[in-house]
Prior knowledge:
Strand order of the largest sheet of chain B: 6-5-4-3-2-1-29
Order of helices and strands of chain A: HHHEEEEEEEE
Oligomer: heterodimer
Strand content of chain A: 15-25%
Strand order of the largest sheet of chain A: 2-5-7
Radius of gyration of chain A: 18 Å
Largest sheet of chain A: 3 strands, antiparallel
Amino acid sequence: MRSIDHLFEKSSRALAQRTSRRSLLGMLGQVLTGAALIPLLPIDRSARAAEAPATHANSKPKAAKAATDDPQSCDYWKYCAVDGFLCSCCGGSANSCPPGTTPSPITWIGTCHNPSDDRDYIVSYNDCCGKVSCGNCECNRNEREKPMYRPSRNNDLNWCMANADSNYHCSVSVILGVAEK
Amino acid sequence: MGISMNTMIIRAAILSLAACSRLLAAAPTPPLAAERLSVAVMPPANPHRLYVLDEAFFNEIDSRVHLFDGDTYRRLGQIDSGFTPGFNLSPDGKTSVVATTYFARGSRGARTDVVEFTDNTTLKATHEIVLPPKRAMTQPTYFSLGFSTDSRFLYVAYITPAASFGVLDPVKYSVIDEIDTAGCMLVIPSGPNRVSSICESGALLTVTLDAQGHEASRAFSETFFDPDRDPVFAGAVPMTNGYAFLSFLGDVHEVDLSGAKPVFRSPWSLLGAADKSAHWRPGGMQIGAIHRHLNRLYVPMHQGGEGTHKDGGTEIWVFDLSTHRRLARWPMAAEKLSAVLAIQVSQDDTPLLFAATDQSDLGVFDALTGKLRHIEKHMGQTPWLLLNP
């Protein structure tokens, strides 16, 4: 029994050494995210949401550019970390894919500040897949975006990668909920 | 309405002159010689040749690599590179490798992931290796695929989004193995048999292969940057014996990969106090280039805050890697160039600096003086990665 305990202890320690808690959360985030899975998201965005205003205060004017309520504008508040083409300019909307395309079931999650109600929202950035890139309304914003070695917070990956048709067409921003402060 | 005699004489003279000149023009001139259709031959390789990866973001299944001569400013040819490709050169510069994806019906249909080899002396595709459908579909980086230093192995990054990498045989053109990287991403080759990947924690995972290309051992390094406070760009800058990882806030983390374990030198900052308060920082798609012999680092720099790490450089800053001293600042507006997204320097004694802008222009500079030599307008659609031998 002791040897089994020892074995398990050893393997657990090895696993713990190899895998940080954050990376585990990150991996879960990658695999489980998506608008249909809101309650499953164990993501500690609150800390990052709380840091957002301070970061903005230090930002140059471009990063803090006035948000708009026009979903066909890259300045729309919900698009704070979109890198791609806005589906609202491609036959869809800010939260719907254009006809004939397929939403990506996996994606990454960010936090955007809505100046209208002064709340931070958790946003799921899904790609719409199965047609060649829309090419209209290119939008590249990267607030709180991280490099691709942190995939659950990265927009450089083609999130259509796991779709049957993995061609990238455009991107949507779907509100998952209010980020708790 | 009467016409005077003088006017008539003048008109007659003009008409006759015109008739004469027509006769003169019609005098037989030798016809153009018959032409023979041929195929241009690639000029010999030279250090000023540049490989420009055009991601073709607006019609992304149609990316390509343009070959450009920094001396004559001519396009030399093209390598097709499909959808969200990885691109690299063999250590001897003779072969280009593209890791890409094709869909059976052009933009849709069955997916084939493949690595394609092109002979750089003919620009003909010579071989291919079909991959499992796991290839990392990312914006261009140095680390999507790369050779071992002895060209024995070729490594290709997989993201599904589970991360792993493929070990390929570039002699037999076959897949040798797939190695799980426990959440660490991309392939950073070093030596004849080591591959490092960047981990979410800010460490490197280094896998050592046996002679057959299978995993012999693995080790995690210490954490060398803080991915929450100040992450490094995923695309690092090749330098002698390793890479310089630049952080969003302008720290330089030099990593020596020449030994069995990575060695991390003390980080240093691109910024002085005044630069920091003026919010200067590096940014773009390919955020630095190093001339290895001169030991100089070139970085596109811009002024901006959080979230501007992909904004291009309004200036190029030049640093001495030995002293960490800034040697020059070259403002791009002075040359009528927009923000620089990708940068590369040739490795010869009369080096050229190449800078691709967010307006898709390519600036060619004297890398020693910063003097602009040429602007190649519209160097493709979205030129985001520049490589050279």
